[in-house]
Amino acid sequence: MIGYLAGEVIYLEAGTAIIEINGVGYEVELAGFKTMPVPGSEIEVHIYTYVREDALKLFAFPEREAKELFEILITVNGIGPSAGLNILNTMPAERFIAAIMEKNELVLKEISGIGPKTAQRLILELESKLVDFHADHFTAGNSAQLEITAQERQDIIDALTALGYQITEINKALRELDLTAEAAVSEKIRLVLSYLGKER
Q: Three-class SS of residue 43?
C-alpha cells in the first residue's frame, strides 16, 4: 500500500495530478491543499489508497493530519471518499471541526451536497471522534487544553446546558480558556461558568 510520494508534478487539472517518480507517473486526487501545486514543481504528499473491485484511487494530502481527518470523515455512514474530498476542499479543517464540536449545522450546510440530515449525521458520528483529534493537532501549544478529556468535556457540557447555556457558547469558552491540568471537573465548570457570565 502506498503511504507517501515525493516527486515532480507533470500534470494538473481539476484537482487531479500526476506525480512522476523515477519515470513512473502516479495519478492522485489532491485534497486539503490551501495552494495547489503547479506543473514542474516538486511535491511531497501523504497518500490514502482507496481500493474496491472496480477502482483503485490515490488521494494525496499535504500533511499527515489532513489524511487522518479524511480517514475519520469516511467512517461516517454515507460519506465516501468523494464526499470526504469535497469537504476538505471546501472548508478549512479547523472551521469544519469547530462546526462539528459546536453542532453548527448552518456552517456545515455551506458545503456543497451537505443538507440538514447529513449535517446532523456528521455531528452525531464525529463529535466524540474529533475532540481528541482537535486537541492533538490544533491546540498543541496549550498543554492544559490537551488535558480536557472527552468525558470531562461532556460533563462540563451536561452541567452547563442544564443551567440553560447553549452548547455553542460552552464550546467557545472551552476553546478560549486556559484550564489547568490539575483542576477538578467542578473547578473547570466554575471557570467556564464565570467566563460565560462575562460574555453575556
A: strand
CA-to-CA separations, 170 to 112, 166, 192, in angstroms, rounded: 28, 6, 7
| CB-based contact 58:26 (threshold 8 Å) | yes
End-to-end CA distance of the chain: 53
The CATH class of 4-62 is mainly beta
CATH of domain 65-199: 1.10.150.20
Q: Exposed/middle/buried for 20, CB within 10 Å: 0-12, 13-18, 19+?
A: middle
| Residue 110 pLDDT grade (very low, low, confident, very high; cuts 50, 70, 90) | confident
The enclosing H or E element of 181 equals: none
